[in-house]
Structure formats: C-alpha cells, structure tokens
Here is the input.
Amino acid sequence: MKYPEFLDPLETASREFLNDLQDNAIGAMCRHAQDYAPLIRQKCAEAGVDARDVTSVKAFREIWPFIDKDDIRIFRDTHNDVGGGTSVTIPGLTVSMGTTSGTTGDPTPIPNSRLGAPEIGYCRDLWGIGMRPGDYHVHMMFTYRGGHRRRLYNELGVSDIYLSMHPAELPRLVEASLRFRPTVMNNFASPFLHAMEQYIEKTGIDPVDVFSSYKGAIFGGEPLSDRMKAVVKSWGLELYETTSLGDVASTTDCRMHNGFHAYEDLAYIEAIDPITTDPVADGEIGELVVTTLVDRLCPLIRYRTGDLVVIDRAPCGCGRVHSRFKILGRATDQILVEGRSILPREIMGIVENHSETRHGLFQIIRRDREMPELSIRIGYDPERLTGRADALKARLHDDIAGQIGVRTVIELVEEAELLKLGPPHKIPRVTKK
Ligand SMILES: [Zn+2]
Here is the structure.
C-alpha cells in the first residue's frame, strides 16, 4: 500500500491558505469563548471588547486582552470554578476529564473532546516519523492524566502497547520491542533512559537489535543532556522532541530537527515583549502567546505561556509551511545586560564544558530584569580541581564573558552548597541574591 507522505493535506497548505483559514476561524472561536468561558467573558468586559469585532487576525491582535496562568488560578479560587473559567463541558463532546501536568502549579482539570487538538497534532507527527496503519506504537507515560485520548491512534489503524514509565517495565519493553517490532516509542524521558542504560549494562542485551524497528523515539518533559542524546543515538534511535503548545495543542520537531512545529490550523501563535506586551517580530525573542482555533471545550484565547521563544514562519525543509519555534527559557528567568538578553540555557553549555563544573550547577543573580552585569554563582566539584580555585574562576570568567560578550562577575562555591537548594541538577536557575 502506497501512502501519502503527509497524513493531512493541511500540513503542506500554503501561507496564504493558512492566513485565510486563521482569519476565518479566529472570530468564531472568540465568540464561542466570550459566550461560554466565564474568565474570557470577564476579561472582554473589562477591556470593553466584543468578539463580533474580531473579523480577522489583525483585528484580533489590536483589541483582544491577554490572559495568563495567574488569571486562571485567581478565577478558580474566587469563583469555585475548577476549570479557572476557561473550560466548558459540552454534552456528547466531553468524553473524559483529564488534568494539566501541574509542573508549574496545581493540576487543573481539562475536559477532553472526541478529537483533541493534541491528538490531531500527534497523529501528524507520528505519521511524519514514519508510522503507518498496521504498525505498533509503544506508549509510555508518567501518568495517564490525559484520560481517554487515544481514539485517533486507533482510527489510524495503529495498535498501542501501553507501558508505565517505571524501571520495572524495562523487561516488558524489551520483550514487546522484539516480539512486535514497533515503529515509534513515546515518551522516552530521561529518568527512564537512565534506567534503560543501566539495564542494558546489567543484562548484556543488544540495544541496536532491540530497537532496530523503531523509526523514532519521542522525548519530552525536560531537556536531555548531550551525553544522553549520544547514548540513545548509539542504540540506533532517532530522537524527536515534543512539548505542549501552551496547553492548546501538542508540538513536535520534524525530521529536520530545527524547532517545534506549531500547526497553524489548530492554533494561532504570536510573540510579545513580556514587559510591554508589544508584538515582537518573527526571528526575535518574545513570550509565546497561543490561541486555540479548534478546541471548543477549552477555548484558551491569547494565553501567555511564560515561555521565551523565537518564531520562524519560513517554510521548513520537511515540506510544511506551518511555523516553527525554539524555546529559549522562561520569561521570569531572562535578564538584560547592556541591552543583551541572557537566559540560563545559554550559560549551561559553557559551564558544563569545564571538567570541574560539568554538572552545570549555577545560578544567575537577578534582582531586576535589567542588571548592570552578568553575575553568576557556579558550583564546582573540589575532587576534580587540579589547580587553584582562582585559576578555574578566571577560566570560567574568560569563557563566559567571551561568549556572552557582557561584563561578567563569577562567584565560585563548592557544589554541595548549591545542591542544598534542591535535588541534583534542579536548583533554581535565577536568584535575587
Ligand atoms: Zn519541518
């Protein structure tokens, strides 16, 4: 059977087509949200906005108010509304209740519809990786908080193999891989990968054989270290990264591995200055703002995600025109020194490159968004120190100041001091003092 390269013809729609589609869809979704989502209705009333005036994306950008996570939490707490005023249950459309992950706050209940935008996106992504009807798909999740949301996979003719993301499942993963020869594994997160690495060392199994049928392994949740990426590559697996598109859809990188694709028939995305909320041009750093174009159960409109991104709307080498974006960090972590934007992610690679500080433990001092200098506290491993600590400090200073290009002040402390602030590798990356 010869299948098309893309699951949905919309994936290769032209820029003009996508713009028209968004111009037509955005007003209807705004109207629905204003009518049925109490928080959106309240925000519109405060701003004196009427959804009937949203006749295009341009009109939308000129008048529509922003919402953020705090708005949703406050509405939830003051109105005894578990959905925070942003969700609607529609009989017959609401097939299950799930929740958000709660990574950056309390988990929020989310009604799931028959055809959720994340599912539509994932199906396109899985197809793009090479999954076809009749294939097996290994599905490992931290939790099944999404509820019943696997309908589309089944409609694709794909058989799911469900595993919990727990080291005790490793023998079952190996057996299922050898017996059913699945095409895609999702989600291959770092705690499980570390356990997999140890399991391979202990049992002596051949990972290249075990994983030989996989066309891709999807990971998400937290970034993988370069070392872990190299380990997975040595098993013969191609990694794809996935993340949530501000809770309105899913988004995964394509085979070009050059940013997350945001499907623009499912969501409208924009980038704004996190302080002034002025629009930011494509290619420049801004806070990601998302608007669903399809989800009538959770009509999140102009939702500020808190993520700093760079959006690229140029056509991608994979054949899709849908925009891509790269995540640089959280808006609350950004500092500006001499007008230059600096985020912890940029510092990480430089710090990890030095043997004594390879664990990448550091904190940026951020009293204000604008700082007179880049001030960093870096943790080192005393056992790896070969010369004097002063020499290491000078090396780090020259490396960071040279690459970032602003006045830099380094404070060196033993790793143990920073580790007291949290579990290993998860200390707060910015601090006021
Ligand atoms: Zn692409």
Notes: The longest helix spans residues 15-36. The two ends are 63 Å apart (CA to CA). The domain at 334-431 is CATH 3.30.300.30 (GMP Synthetase; Chain A, domain 3).
